Structure formats: structure tokens, C-alpha cells
Amino acid sequence: MRYLFYFSLVLSLFSCKNNSNEEIITTFPKNITIPKGMVWIPGNTFTMGAKDNDNLALPHEKPAHSVTVDGFFMDETEVTNAQFRKFIEATGYLTTAERPINWEEMKKTLPEGTPKPHDSILAPGSLVFYEEIKSVSGLNNWQQWWKWTLGANWRHPYGPNSNINGKDNYPVVHISYEDALAYCKWANRKLPSEAQWELAAMGNLKNAIYTWGDDKNKLDKKANTWQGSFPIQNAKVDGYNLLSPVKSFQPNSLGLFEMSGNVWEYTSDWYNTDYYQELFNTGITTKNPNGASTSKNPNNPYQAEKIIKGGSFLCNENYCSSFRISARMGMTEDSSSDHVGFRTIATIEMLQK
Q1: Hey, which bits of the chain come out as E strands?
Q2: Mean pLDDT by 10-residue block, N- to C-terminus, for the chain (353 residues)?
Q3: Any bridge partners for residue 334, and if so which?
Q4: DSSP string covering 71-103, please?
């Protein structure tokens, strides 16, 4: 998305199959203590993808298919500014949004012959939602409400004159997939697969559309999303205009906070529009799927994308409606913005090493 934004700016200025008798890990060994800030997600077999009664489901959430996932531990909240700061202080890591841009590397992901942008544009920064937008011409052109902001990064979420003072308990944003992996390596954690993420979001429910059930009318009390006319006016019925602190809304049945809304969350899976159909065609319940082997998005053929889940504070029923469990979107590995973050998982194997 980062390089895709540049490109747009230039133009305008499987995994193993499951034996039904195979044991599913539903509990963890007694010699393992639940890591601080995490909850246990019991293994289960469930229907992944769009539910039959979900009228908001999009084609890329279909067909629904059966998967089995072993149990694992997951962060109860999105990784916060305070947690990410500890990682930075320990490692000196520089996030993607803080690094100088290498045009020679960037142009490899763009159509041949794409002209080089002006040097003033090729500077560190990230995408920020343009809160001052007054009108739009349709909702198909996302450039109307996204602004490439020089100096925007996790420390300065709205540009160099902004900061995160007093926001230790807010989810860290302007984090790329690459940044999230670096944090995971330091913390001895992983990003969840899409199947793991959906199992966790579903909690103790079965075939639910939302993390709390099927009642859409509870949305404003259950998640930080957009109410009103997107992207012109947010009525703030849920109490927030943009980001909210973690634990601002009730957790799901397993104790996970903000699995719907607030910020999108990275998964480890490639975004591939053919993958669900391929799994469905096998007629077999897949165990612990790790997603497609390659990325495929006809709408973005030049760049590989990872799946993000859960929606964000910008999700509105008339726009993306991605506050649903099955909702998904692709994002390039070097992209970052002020509405994408992440949470991590730990498996039994990782904790036994």
C-alpha cells in the first residue's frame, strides 16, 4: 500500500489435510503458565469465512469452509505504544515509516516505466486519515481520505508535530508487517494465521457474524467503528472519533479485547483471492492452515499482500463493514497507516523451548 500510494501519486501529480480422528489440542500442559497479558484459545473445528446469514459478506470471504485449529495463546489486546517502546529501547529498531525511501527498491514493485516522484515526496512518512475532508466523489477512490504525511510514524501518528504522550495504552500504529515481525522475533511471539485469528475472534460462540454474536444493533456498544456519513462525519456514538485505548470495550467470550474495530490486525497469511475456493474444493477439513503459498490480488497485481483482520475505527456499514469476523483485506508488507496495528500469539511449542 505504501508503494501503491506512491504509484497512484505519481500518476496523479496450503498446508496439511486433517484426518478427522486426529487429536485437537484444546488444553495446555500443566507445566506451562499462561504468559502475562495473554489468554488461552482452545483448539476447535469451525466454519471459516462468510456465514450464511451475513448479508454484508463480500465475495472474497467466500466460500465458507471447515478448518481445525490447535489451541494457542493470544495477546488479550493489540500491542500498545508502551509495549512497542520497550522493544525499540531494547533493540534500537527503526520502523519502515522512519527509514529513508530507496527508489531503486521501490520501482521493482511498480509497473515498468513508472516515473520517479520528486525527492520531496520520497521521504520517510506514512498514511494518515484526512480528518478534515469535507466532501467526496463516491467511495471508490480511497485517495480522497488518505494523506501521505511526511514524518508520520509510531512516535508521531499524525505527523512531526504530534506525539503519543499519555497514550501508552493505545494500540501502536504506523507499523508495517516487517515491523510486526521484528517485534515478534524480539518477544518470542508470532503473528496469528488467519484461521487462528478467526477462531480467537469467534471465542465460545459458533458460526457468529460478530465477536459478540449476530446482533448488529450492538455494534456501537461493542466496538470502535465509524457512525455517520463516512468519511465526512463521525457521529461518535461509540464515544470515540479515531483511535481508542485498549480495553475500551467489553472483551469477547475468551477475554480478548477489540477483536472488532479500533485497528486492523496483521496475520501471517498471504492475501490470495483463489485460496478459499481451493480449500473448499478439496472437501476436506484442513488442520492448522497457514494460508496460500503466494499472494494474488487482481486489483493490485504488482505487490504481494498479507491479510489483515478485524476492521478499524474507520469501518462503516456503507463502506467496508469490516467489523465482522470473516472480513479481510490485503496489505503490502512495507505499508503502514494510523489504523493498522497487530497482536501476537504463542504456541505451546514456542513456550516449551
Answers
A1: 38-41, 44-48, 65-69, 72-75, 125-129, 146-150, 264-270, 286-287, 305-309, 328-332, 340-341, 345-346
A2: 45 39 88 97 98 96 98 98 98 96 62 65 88 82 87 97 98 98 98 98 97 97 95 95 98 98 98 97 96 96 96 92 97 96 98 89
A3: none
A4: -EEEESSPPBHHHHHHHHHHH----GGGSPP-H
Q: How far is CA 193 from CA 210, 246, 282, 300, in A?
A: 19, 22, 20, 22
3-class secondary-structure state, position 306: strand
Q: CA torsion sign, 333 to 337 to 339 to 344?
A: positive
- Dihedral pair phi/psi, residue 328, rounded to 5°: -155, 155
pLDDT at 182: 98
How far apart are the C-alpha atoms of 21 and 32, rounded to whole Å? 26
Let me know how many helices (H) and strands (E) the chain has, helices first: 8, 12
Half-sphere exposure of 288 (CA within 13 A, CB side): 12
pLDDT for 68: 98
- The answer to whether the beta carbons of residues 333 and 3 sit under 8 Å apart is no
Contact 267, 194 (CB under 8 A): yes
Query: Of all helices (H) and strands (E), which one includes residue 245?
Result: none
CA distance 138 to 141: 7
Which of 215, 313, 180 shows the shortest CA–CA distance to 258? 313
Give alpha helix (H) positions in 130-230: 177-187, 194-202, 219-222
- Residue-level pLDDT at 289: 97
| Residue 127, SS3 per DSSP | strand
Identify the CA nearest to 2 among candidates 139, 138, 175.
Answer: 175
| pLDDT given for residue 32 in this prediction | 96
Helices (H), ranges, the chain: 2-12, 81-91, 103-106, 177-187, 194-202, 219-222, 275-282, 348-352
